[in-house]
Amino acid sequence: MLTPYQPFQLASIPHDVRKYSLEVADSIDRQVDHVANVIRDTLSKQSWIPPSVRPPTRSFPNAGSSGSQSFADRVQAWMLRNRAWSAAIIAFASTTCVLYFGGKKLHGKRRKAKRALSGARKEIVVVAGLAHEPATRSIASDLERRGYIVYVTVSSAEEEQIIQSENRPDIRPLWLDLTASSSPNDLHPSLHGIRSLITQPQSPVVGVPPHTCQLSGLIIVPSPNYVTGPVATIPPSSWVDTVNTRLLSPILTTQHLLPLLTLRNNNSTIVFVYPSISSSLSAPFAGPEVSVTRALSGFATSLRREMRLLHQGTVNVVELKLGNVDFGTQHRGAQNQIVGTEVLAWSEQQRALYGPQYLSSIEQRPVATVGPSKVRGSPAKSLHYAVLDALEPPSRDIFGRKTPKQPVIYVGRGARSYNLIGRWIPGGLVGWMLGLQSGPHPSFASSSSSETGWEKV
């Protein structure tokens, strides 16, 4: 017989005990159901049981008909139904990832010289150019900062002093007398030191494993400053000096260094650095520059094809065609010099024939050194990056095959655009852009009003 206080006693059972009891009961029910389902499925698949007493097979609902399915479940169900399409999509995505990340890894820019295991420098680069030129000094300094041993060709004590004033032990002067009579089959006497570095093991410190250096490149940097003016007004001595210093000297320097560049089976590059705007436009009053740069480009093309015929094929030839490059404020003083004063040295007839057109062309010339004051070039680091990319060994694709180097690299503002203009725009329109007119001479007022006409191109 229940007492009146029994409901109160049931209510006094702690809430947590009742909760845990219900969970245990639910867990037991689920386990029993699971065991029953397993037994039912197992018995339904047994062939020895008569069909009359064999339990029926459970039917599962369609995966696409469930509204509560997650996106991942629906994708998985679709992949199970369309296995061929799924395999094709996975293969395409995998191949794309391999090509992208593999190509990015293979074509990554190192832009630093290789070093020996001891950390010593081992890559040598020879820079052939005038020591007082901004381009020569800028390229040599940047290469030295990136771990190269840099030799700069000199031909006088003044140039040697300029190199030594850099106070960098890995920027070294290289006396190279191109007028010395020597057979092409003999190595130039000044190059025996470099030959020793690339053929004999070098040990910078006692106890450090020795290493052998390698000649990675030759960079030809002729002076970009040319005599300008009508052909009739340029003296023969200027033509001779231009051809000797900016065309013949690079050719002879290349000839002297070729035995060292082909001595070992390592990748090396010959880089020609020269201005290209005037030659691309075939600009008037720039005969020496157009003649020399086009001749130098032809020589580089011929040499490139000659090097490809070698059995090793390890010497590459790259041309860096320069536009306007800014080497900093310390080198802009020359841009403010008074130009056009050479007209005063002409005869009266020459001033009457060429004077107005020549002075008008100076104002419109798209070169920062002599053109409008608003013309500014690309930063010098664009030239540094182009030189380093040219010195890099040929890259390989994902199949391990060497990809050929880009034979021509355009560097600086206007290099590529003026090349396209000179190639595709009619000559008359190019002359109009240069501020030139045939027939009556234009007035100076009208020519000065379009001072920045080239900046709009």
Automatic annotation (TrEMBL):
Transmembrane spans: 84-102
Biased composition, class Polar residues, residue ranges: 59-69
The organism of origin for this protein: Aspergillus sclerotialis
Pfam families: DUF1776 (PF08643)
Keyword list, A-Z: Membrane, Transmembrane, Transmembrane helix
Protein name: DUF1776-domain-containing protein
InterPro entries: DUF1776_fun (IPR013952), NAD(P)-bd_dom_sf (IPR036291)
Coiled coil: none
Annotated spans, Disordered: 50-69
